[in-house]
């Protein structure tokens, strides 16, 4: 904060008066004269200044000046004492330097990852140093819907993990008090730890997933536990360790009463027995249900009826257990926006091993942590979001063109309207059933979607197998109440393995998290990077580059209209954009523009993709008279670091015949 000029002059007068009272000017003058006598001609001006300052300090002149200049309102800074919280019974609660908002009326689990060992895949990796681009690990944690992630740690055989997460242990209901020892034993939610490796190119890989049991801490009198956790790989490598994490856990506040190890062991064994028994009963029921389904028609054995799916830990789960209504709070406002968000998450087919495509349905937390997955992962997330919006949504398993297996989402409205949602593109199609009994001359509308057959549909409460004479989508009737067209599973059987009140729960709750990126700053940075890349590319071709800032700005309405169209399904048109361009482009000049959308913010990858388009390359490498280039970047952010990056390259030049 600057002082007004009159205050500055007043302060100068006060300092000058103090110096005159102590004859500071005279002392400095004498010291300078003495220093000049002892200075040789070879010494530089800088050395002379050092000698003068040294003599001023030795004779105490500097100390006299500092001791006399005392200003009101300045006090010695006191080191703030570390805040210590206590609960109602006076037990100490660590506040961790105010990093975490601790409520003394709640109970927390302070979860620490203090290091990593035996990540042998990175044994030969070179040592990271500042400025070197290398692969890195990111640790993701989910507990009772609370999600956190670590900072990026360079990949190494012994990665330097040093993270702490404060996890609230929520009671079964909002009316329950702070969980005590007995209540903690009944809370069977596990800590889901996921490790993501990101390559220098930006490609991310899910390399480890582990469900950590934490309740062993309740038998420790100090409410602390330290352990080493072995993390296994995923898919075909789920039985192969990839590394070890060193962890510590503290209960906050400490327990008044602890239990014995035998009690915990008995509780865990009881839960395992309960899970094994309900899985055994459901497996027996599903086998009987499948035999009944095959007895309807022998051709049903060729239909894609998916009852179980294998997750990243090679555990076979009932497909309905992957789904649950997911509410996004204020992060997503409409079902269309939810579909747009899901489509912006990366798509990657699971690898082919020995000529066979390995199937893996990743858990929702692992899918969101990586930000990339197969079509089934996208469908499960989209269907969960649509269920959260109150729609009657189901995941469809079937085939598309050329008999390729595929999955999509269907919603059935109360008026009977059937809508198909493509999770990879956010497109919607209205299903128009073709009646095979219509006369041959009746005009039939060709479907606009790519789906060919449907074998089954399901959500978190229901499972239906298609038992109609043909499984073609175009003739399929989605009247689920028609038992002759759809064979359903028992609702009680489904609730027994994936009901809301199960203990233990099949999969933990997951919530979406917002993105903490400034879209304006990121758009500006990306635009500047693209300008630099265009300049270098044209310079290599022997071309000069001139940017038209006015034209760059005029491209913004078009990019906003494109994203609005995708996120709402409503086209607003580009009349304003076109009128602005017409006024900016002079007569006799030609304008060309090329919009393109990405789901990443890597400038080099985006520029390389643009050059592969003949039209965009023609704009970037334009030759002619009075060539003026423009580029505009607009980033639209969604939850989970998902983004729609719209880029438009444009050029205007004078036409020469």
TrEMBL record:
CEP76/DRC7 peptidase-like domain sequence ranges: 359-489
Keywords, sorted A to Z: Cytoplasm, Cytoskeleton
Lyase in keyword set: no
InterPro entries reported for this sequence: CEP76, CEP76-C2, CEP76_C, CEP76_N, CEPT76/DRC7_peptidase-like_dom, Papain-like_cys_pep_sf
Residues in CEP76 C2 domain copies: 102-256
Gene Ontology biological process terms, A to Z: regulation of centriole replication
Protein name as catalogued: Centrosomal protein of 76 kDa
Species name: Clytia hemisphaerica
Phylogenetic classification of the source organism: Eukaryota, Metazoa, Cnidaria, Hydrozoa, Hydroidolina
């Amino acid at each position: 904060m600057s002082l007004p000029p009159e205050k500055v002059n007043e302060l100068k007068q006060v300092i000058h008066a103090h110096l005159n009272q102590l004859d500071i000017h005279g002392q400095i003058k004498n010291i300078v004269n003495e220093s000049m006598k002892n200075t040789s001609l070879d010494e530089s001006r800088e050395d002379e200044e050092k000698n003068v300052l040294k003599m001023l300090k030795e004779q105490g002149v500097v100390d006299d000046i500092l001791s006399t200049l005392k200003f009101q309102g300045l006090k010695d800074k006191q080191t703030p004492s570390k805040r210590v919280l206590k609960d109602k019974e006076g037990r100490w609660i660590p506040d961790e330097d105010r990093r975490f908002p601790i409520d003394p009326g709640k109970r927390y689990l302070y979860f620490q990852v203090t290091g990593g060992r035996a990540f042998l895949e990175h044994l030969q990796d070179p040592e990271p140093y500042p400025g070197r681009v290398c692969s890195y690990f990111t640790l993701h944690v989910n507990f009772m819907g609370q999600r956190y992630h670590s900072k990026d740690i360079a990949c190494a055989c012994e990665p330097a993990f040093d993270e702490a997460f404060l996890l609230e242990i929520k009671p079964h209901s909002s009316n329950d008090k702070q969980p005590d020892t007995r209540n903690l034993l009944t809370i069977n939610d596990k800590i889901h730890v996921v490790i993501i490796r990101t390559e220098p190119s930006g490609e991310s890989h899910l390399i480890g997933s582990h469900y950590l049991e934490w309740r062993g801490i309740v038998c420790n009198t100090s409410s602390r536990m330290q352990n080493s956790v072995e993390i296994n790989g995923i898919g075909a490598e789920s039985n192969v360790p990839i590394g070890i994490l060193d962890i510590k856990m503290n209960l906050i506040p400490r327990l008044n009463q602890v239990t014995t190890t035998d009690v915990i062991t008995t509780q865990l064994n009881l839960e395992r027995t309960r899970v094994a028994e309900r899985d055994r009963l459901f497996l027996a029921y599903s086998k009987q249900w499948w035999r009944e389904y095959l007895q309807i028609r022998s051709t049903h054995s060729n239909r894609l009826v998916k009852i179980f799916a294998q997750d990243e830990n090679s555990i076979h789960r009932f497909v309905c257990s992957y789904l649950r209504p997911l509410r996004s709070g204020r992060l997503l406002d409409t079902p269309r926006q939810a579909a747009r968000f899901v489509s912006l998450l990366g798509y990657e087919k699971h690898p082919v091993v020995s000529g066979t495509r390995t199937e893996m349905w990743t858990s929702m937390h692992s899918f969101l942590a990586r930000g990339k997955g197969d079509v089934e992962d996208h469908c499960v997330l989209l269907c969960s979001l649509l269920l959260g919006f109150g729609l009657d949504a189901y995941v469809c398993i079937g085939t598309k063109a050329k008999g390729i297996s595929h999955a999509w989402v269907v919603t059935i409205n109360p008026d009977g309207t059937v809508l198909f949602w493509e999770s990879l593109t956010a497109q919607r199609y209205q299903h128009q059933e073709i009646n095979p009994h219509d006369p041959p001359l009746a005009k039939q509308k060709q479907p606009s979607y790519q789906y060919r057959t449907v074998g089954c549909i399901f959500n978190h409460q229901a499972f239906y197998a298609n038992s109609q004479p043909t499984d073609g989508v175009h003739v399929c009737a989605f009247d689920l109440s028609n038992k002759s067209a759809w064979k359903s599973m028992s609702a009680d059987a489904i609730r027994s393995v994936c009901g809301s009140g199960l203990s233990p729960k099949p999969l933990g709750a997951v919530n979406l998290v917002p993105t903490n990126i400034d879209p304006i700053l990121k758009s500006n940075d990306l635009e500047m990077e693209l300008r630099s890349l265009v300049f270098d590319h044209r310079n290599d071709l022997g071309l000069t580059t001139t940017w038209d800032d006015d034209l760059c700005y005029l491209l913004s309405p078009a990019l906003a209209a494109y994203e609005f169209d995708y996120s709402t399904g409503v086209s607003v048109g580009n009349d304003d954009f076109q009128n602005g361009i017409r006024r900016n482009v002079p007569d006799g000049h030609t304008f060309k523009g090329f919009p393109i959308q990405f789901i990443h913010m890597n400038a080099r990858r985006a520029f390389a993709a643009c050059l592969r388009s003949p039209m965009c390359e023609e704009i970037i490498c334009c030759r002619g008279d009075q060539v003026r280039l423009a580029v505009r970047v607009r980033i639209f952010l969604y939850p989970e670091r998902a983004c729609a990056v719209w880029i438009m390259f444009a050029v205007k030049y004078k036409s020469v015949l």
